Amino acid sequence: MASHGNYRGYQGVSRHDGQNSASHVVDYRLQVLVDTLPDIFAGKDILDVGCNNGAISVHLGNTTCRICCPATVTGVDIDPELVKKARSHLSFRYSRTAPGETTTGNDPERNNYFPISSVMEHGHRPYPEDPVPTKFPRNVEFHCEDWAKTSISEAGSYDVVLALSMVKWVHLQHLDEVMTKGLREFFGKCHSSLRLSGYFVLEPQEWASYERAVKKNKSLGGNLQKLKIRPEHFESVLKEIGFNFLQKAEGKGLKRNIFIYQKK
Hints:
Elements: H1 13-17, H2 28-36, E1 45-49, H3 55-61, E2 72-77, H4 80-96, H5 108-111, H6 116-122, E3 140-144, E4 158-164, H7 167-174, H8 183-193, E5 194-203, H9 207-216, H10 221-226, H11 234-241, E6 243-249, E7 258-263
Parallel strand pairs: 1-2, 1-4, 2-3, 4-5
Antiparallel strand pairs: 5-7, 6-7
Protein name: RNA methyltransferase
Family: Belongs to the methyltransferase superfamily.
Keywords: Methyltransferase, S-adenosyl-L-methionine, Transferase
């Protein structure tokens, strides 16, 4: 049972907006965020916490799409199999991408220049021998760790921290408080990881989603009863930690609202 939310395909595009689930289709939430705050990703160092199979991280880092254009993307997940899949997905997307640069917007023809049959027959393309860390795929990396519990190696390393449909699992596993490495500790760590004026992007699950989760994960039922903080309290908790609410990203395809906070 995926007691940390480490379901296969949890961050897939079709799960969150009902769109085409093909791997080249950019997650609708990214487009909504860019439409809401155009400079949110451009030239930024991004941390994707709970990256799952890497779908979001790879779309972010794929500079040939010309939608997000970050400097670097780091994805972290607790599940080693999902991290392995994320690295494979990165290699697969690079293997299908046309060589060279583009100055246009998202171009499906470039992103799918080499057909799947070619990749299946000839294998994945090797990464460039002369690595340029700000170019795809070298600008994306994945790590396996329980980020909620590990120590920060260096404070202020990122411009954007993403927590998309994952904070419920931190909350259910580690409860409310700092002493249990709980929700307050997680939010505090997100704050510490950001540079001044950096963005924290939070897509919280509703309380009913917590209740559904414990029905599937009976071992978490006792923890649910201990929680005093609920999703409607998150904004006040984040304000105490040092975040200002900036904007709410809404879109017709989104199943959940996405909240953008900024580090004071």
